[in-house]
């Protein structure tokens, strides 16, 4: 059962107890560490990359932990793809084609995107996929994906 199903079913407290986590009050977000920052390690605004290019993520001031691990000052990455505006920050991020979760603590991914321009941004979220307060968000960048090697 995933975390979103746990939230809907009311089993969050049982899940957190079983994983050694601590529950936050409803509507309360995990605090982020002062000065925490995330970014793309190998992408910059305006880059042109081939399809399947591996994007790497960096973090400073906090650590990376898998979803479900309620460890202070940690979170896991979410890649926002071609979003016009940020999703609601006070609730778990949904799983969509435009919000890609890295709940196992991954720090890189191949960009399997269609040819053309794409707006990318990273957002860190806590053990329950809820963005921190204040949010730890990278700068948005626009890249262009091409069919061939560049």
Entry keywords:
2 helices, mainly beta, globular, 10% helix, six-stranded mixed sheet, 150 residues, three-stranded antiparallel sheet, Immunoglobulin-like, disordered N terminus
Whole-number total of structural domains: 1
Q: How many helix segments?
A: 2
CATH topology: Immunoglobulin-like
Give a count of the beta strands, DSSP E runs of length 2 or more. 9
How much strand?
Answer: 25-35%
CA-based gyration radius: 16 Å
CATH H-level homologous superfamily name = Immunoglobulins
Question: CATH class, please?
Answer: Mainly Beta
Shape: globular
- Oligomer class: single chain
Please state the average pLDDT score.
Answer: 86
Helix content: 10-25%
CATH architecture: Sandwich
Order of helices and strands: HHEEEEEEEEE
Describe the secondary structure blueprint for this structure.
Blueprint lengths: L2 H7 L2 H8 L17 E4 L7 E3 L3 E7 L2 E2 L9 E8 L17 E3 L6 E3 L5 E10 L15 E6 L4
Parallel strand pairs: 2-9, 4-5
Antiparallel strand pairs: 1-3, 3-7, 5-6, 5-8, 8-9
């Amino acid at each position: 059962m995933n975390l979103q199903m746990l939230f809907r079913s009311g089993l969050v407290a049982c899940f957190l107890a079983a994983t050694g986590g601590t529950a936050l009050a409803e509507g309360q977000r995990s605090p982020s560490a002062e000065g925490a920052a995330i970014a793309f390690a190998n992408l910059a605004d305006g880059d042109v990359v081939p399809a399947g290019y591996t994007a790497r993520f960096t973090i400073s001031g906090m650590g990376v932990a898998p979803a479900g691990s309620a460890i202070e000052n940690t979170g896991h990455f979410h890649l926002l793809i071609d979003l016009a505006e940020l999703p609601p920050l006070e609730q778990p991020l949904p799983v969509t084609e435009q919000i890609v979760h890295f709940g196992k603590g991954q720090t890189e991914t191949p960009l399997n995107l269609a040819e053309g321009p794409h707006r990318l941004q990273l957002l860190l979220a806590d053990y329950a996929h809820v963005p921190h307060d204040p949010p730890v968000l990278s700068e948005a960048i626009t890249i262009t994906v091409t069919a061939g090697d560049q």
